[in-house]
Amino acid sequence: MPSPHRRARILAHAAPAVALVALLHGCGGGEPKPEPAATPAAAPPPVTAPPVTVSSASAAAVDPGPRFTQSTGTLEPRRLPPVDLPVVTSQVDGGHLYLWAKSTALPDDALLGRATPGRLVCRLAGARHGVAVPFDGGGPSLALRLVGAALPAEPLAVTCAQSARLPVAGDDGSDVEAFGATQTYRIVATRGGDRKPVRASFFKALATWLRDRTLHDGGRADPLFEFMAARAERLADGDVSGRAPRAPAGGLRPRRGDLGELMSLYTGLTSAEEALQTDRGLLIREDSKAELKARRIALTSLTPVPLPSHPWAAMIAEKKPTPAIEPLASVAPADAIYVHFGDMRQLVRLMKDVDAWLAPAARALEMSPGEWGMAERYERELAVERTGLAEKLGHLAVKGVAVVLGDPLLREGTDVAMLFDVGNEALLDGALAAFAANARARRPDAVTGTITLAGRPVAVLSTADGEIRQHRLRVGNVEIIANAPEAVVRILEAIDGKRPSLARSGDYQYFRGLYPHRTGRGFAFLSDAFVGRVTGPAFKIAAARRMAAAADLKAVAGAALLHGLLEGQPAADAAALLKTGLAGKTDFVHGDGTPITYTAEAGPSSTWGRLTRRESLSAVSQRIDTVSEAEKLAYDAFRESYQQYWRAFIDPIGVEIEPSTGPGGGGWRVDARMMPLIDASEYDELAALTGRGTIPTPTTPDGVHWRVALGPESRLRREIENNGRHFPGMESLTLSWLGDWFAVGLLDRSAVWDAVLAENDAPALRRETQGGSSIETLARLPLYGELHLRDRLAFAAFLTALRGAVDQTTGGLVEWGDGGKHRDVPIVTLRERSGGVAGVRGLALHYAIAGQVFILGLDRDAVAARIDAALAPPAPDADSRPPTQAALQLTPGPGAFTFRALAAVAERASERAHRAALRAAELLMVAHPGLDAAGLERRGQALLGYVPVSPYGGGFVRDAEGALTHAQVGSEVRPTVPASPMPGSPLTVFFEHLAGLETAIAVEGDAAHRGLRVGLTWRTR
C-alpha cells in the first residue's frame, strides 16, 4: 500500500491547482491529542464563538469545533535538595571579596552540572549584595563577587534558578532538562582556600554568562549584553580606568564596526549596533583627535546618488489633471515628509487608533522589548496635546493641519513641525496657551525666551534636558510649532522662496491631481527632493556619525548598569564609574571630542542627545563640511549599490487616508501610489505575473482570500499551459477556457486552529504526541483554489482529458466519486481507491463548477461554502471598488479561528522579545533596588532608551522568591501558558477590534506615468 506521502503525490496530479497541497504538505512530528468528546474545551479566549454553520445540500453542515486542545497551565519547578560547595580559593581585590567554589562530588541532578550558564540565575541570600555566576573551572563551579572585603559568616547561601524550556516533551516527566528548577548551594569554608587570584576568573565567567543569557534560547545577541560582556572581558585583563585604550589583548576581536554597514538603508543596522557595542566594551575606537584630523575631504567633492527626475511638467500636460492643493503645501519644504489633514479631528482620531491598536500590535510583531513612547515624547517636546479640547475645537480653530518630518527615524529622533491653517485665532491661541500652561505645571523649570531665525522672532519654551523644546511663530495665516530650530528655518526658507516648497514642486502637483485635496481626507507625501536629501552624502554620513555617537552614550549606560549589577546600587555620577574601574576616561568623550555627562537620574547625555532621543539628522548634516577617506569610500559604495538594491523602494509616494464609519464600527482606507522610473524592479515581477490584467476587488465572507489577475500576457497563464501539456494525451490542448483570475484561500474554520496546534506553532506547556497522521490534519483544512472560467464547455473537455491522463499516470489508483450536490451544483470527489489506513481519514480532493468558477478544495464543506460565494449576487459596493491585479483579504468568520491561529503564532514568535524585556527589567531592578513602576519607567528611559514592557502587555514584578514574573506568562522558572489569544494582550486587543483587512496591488500607467498602486482597508468593530 502506498505511504501517505506517496498518496499525496499521486493526488497532486489530479487537477491544475493541486500544487496548493504540496505547498502546505509539510506536517510532521508530534500532534496534540484529539479532544475527547466528553471533555469540555478549555476556557475560550475572547475572540472565540459558537460553532460555525456552513451551507450544505440537504442540511446545514456544522463545524464540529476544534479536535485538539492547546496545552495550557503552569509548569511547576523542581525543588532540588541543597548542596554543599567548598571554597577552592578566595581573593580580596579593590575592596571586594572574590570566591571560587567547586565540588568534585556533585549529585547527578545538580543544576551546576548540567545547565548552560545562561539558563541559571543565581542569587545570594542576605542583605549583602553579591554576584554569583556558574562556570566550568575544571568542573562545575560558582564564581562569586561580594561587595566589601569582609569574609561572610558560614555558610553563604546561593540559590540558583534554572529557566524552563517549553514545550515539555511528554507527560511522564522524563524531560528533566525542560523543567524549571531551583537549588541552594551552601558555600562552606569561606575562610579556607588557597588565596590564589580569582578576580580574573570571575569576570571571564561573568562575560560568558552575560553572552549566554541572550543566546541560550536561540535569540540574537543583545547589544547591551554584548557591551557588558566585552567590558567584563577587559576587567578580567585589568581595570579600564587607564588614560587611553590599550590594544586588544590576545584572543580579543579587533574592531568590527563597519562604516559601510552604518550607511545602509534599513538593513544591517542591528548587526552594526552589536559590533559597535562590543567595540565600545573592549575600548576599541579611533582616537578622537586622529579621527577629527582625518576629516580633510570637502563634502562638496562627494558625488551624490544620481536621481533622474520624472518629467513632471510634461506628464501633467499629457494627463491634464486638475491639482487641488491646500494652502499649507506652500509653507512645507519639498524635501521633507509631509502629512496633511483638512480636519483636525481626523488626525487626532488616527493617532488614537494607532496608539490604541496598531502600535502595541506592531511592537509585538516587531519583537520589541519595550515601549519607546514616541507619540508622548513628541507631544511633550512640542507642548501640543491630543486631548478632548483638540477633538472638539480643533476643526473650528484651524482649517487644516500638517505635520512635517525631517526623516522617518522617529524612534531615534527627528525634527518635527506642526503647521496650522488658522481658522479662529482666539480658539487656537487659547488651546495652545492651555497646552503650554500644562507643560509648565509638569515642568516648573521650563523657561521662555525669544530667538531670531531666518530674520524672524521665534518664541521658545524649553527645558534644559530637552523634554520640552517648543519653537513657535505665526507667519500670515499659518501657525508654526516645531521641536528644533532647523525645522523652523527650513519652513521659513520655503515661505521666502529660498527653498522649494511642495506647492511649487511638479511631483506634488501631479500627485494632487491624482489625489485632490478634500477636507474629509488626509494626505501623506514623500517627494523626489526628499529621496534626494536622505540618499545624499551629508545625510548618510550624518546618520553614520549619529549611530556611532549613540553607541558612545549606550556604552556609558552599559557601564552604569554593570555597576548596578556588581554593586547593587546605581553609580551616582561619572566619577563613581571611573573610581570602580567600570568605565575609562575615553568612555566620556565622543569620537569628535564632544564630552559626555552622566548622572544616576538622567543617564548619559551630550550635545548629541540622550538615549530617548538623539539630535536630528537635519541638524547634524548642517554641521558637516569635511569627511574622512573612510566615510567617502563608504558613501561611494552606498551610491554604487543604491540603484540596484533600493531605488525601487523609495521613489515618490503619495498616500490618501480616509476614515470610514459604518453600523458595525469604523476603520481607515489608504490608497497609495509610487512612481518608479526604472525597469527590472520588483514591480516588473507583478506585471509579468498578471500580464497587466485587472480584476474587480473581490469580497469574501470569511477567512483568507488571495486573488490574482491573469491577463492575456500573464507569465502564470503560460506556465499553467506548459505544465498542463506534460500530461500524456494533453499535448495539443490549450487553455482557451482559462478566465481572468485565479485565487487561493482558507476559510475561517476550526480546522485552521487544529493545524496550528498540530504543528506546535502555538504556545504550549507540553508537546503532546498521538496516533494518527499529518495527512488527516491536512485533509480537514478548509483550503481551496479557484479558477475563473471563460468557456465552461472547453473546460469540461479539458477535465475529461485530464481525468484520462490522471488514470493513466496513477495506474487507476485514483477513484473519481460522486460528492453529492450543493445548490444543484455537482461535486466530484477524488480519493485513493485502496481506501488508505483503517480509521484514518485520507487525503481527498473535491471540485465543482459554480457559475464561471472552478473550485477545488481539500474539504467538501469548504467547497460548498465557495459555491455559495460564487453564486451569490455582487456586493452592493462592487461597482465602486477600483480594479486591481492582486488582492489579499482577511475577514474573520463567526468562530474567528483564523484570527485565533494568527494571534497564537504571533504569541509564540514573541517569546524572545518577552525574554529580552524581562532581562532588561532584571538589570534595572538589580541596579536600583526597591524601584516602583514610575521609577522603573524613568530608569528605563535614562539607561535603555525605552521602558521594558512585555509584548504580551504589562511589565514585571518580583515574586516571593525574588524572580521577575509576568501576570500572563509567569516567570522563567515557573512559566504559565494561557489559552491563546492571551486575554488583554496587545495582539488580542488588535484582533478583537479588527473586523477585516483588505489589500489591493496593481501596476498602472505606462512610460513616465508607470507606477505601483496599493490600496489598504482596515475595518474595526
Report on this model:
The structure is a single chain. The strands form ten sheets. The chain has a 20-stranded antiparallel β-sheet, sandwiched between helices. Helix 9 (312-319) packs parallel to helix 15 (506-514), helix 10 (344-366) crosses helix 12 (388-397) and helix 10 (344-366) packs across helix 30 (986-993). The two termini are 52 Å apart. With 1021 residues, the chain is an alpha+beta fold. It contains 30 helices and 46 strands. The longest helix is centred in the middle third of the chain and has 31 residues, at 537-567. The protein is 34% helix and 24% strand.
Distance between the termini: 52 Å
Question: Count of helices?
Answer: 30
Radius of gyration: 32 Å
| Broad structural category | alpha+beta
- Tell me about the biggest sheet? 20 strands, antiparallel
Poorly predicted sequence stretches spanning 5 or more consecutive residues: 1-60, 242-257, 836-840
- Residue-averaged pLDDT, rounded? 83
Principal-axes shape call = globular
How much helix, percentage-wise, in residues? Answer: 25-40%
Percent of residues in β-strands: 15-25%
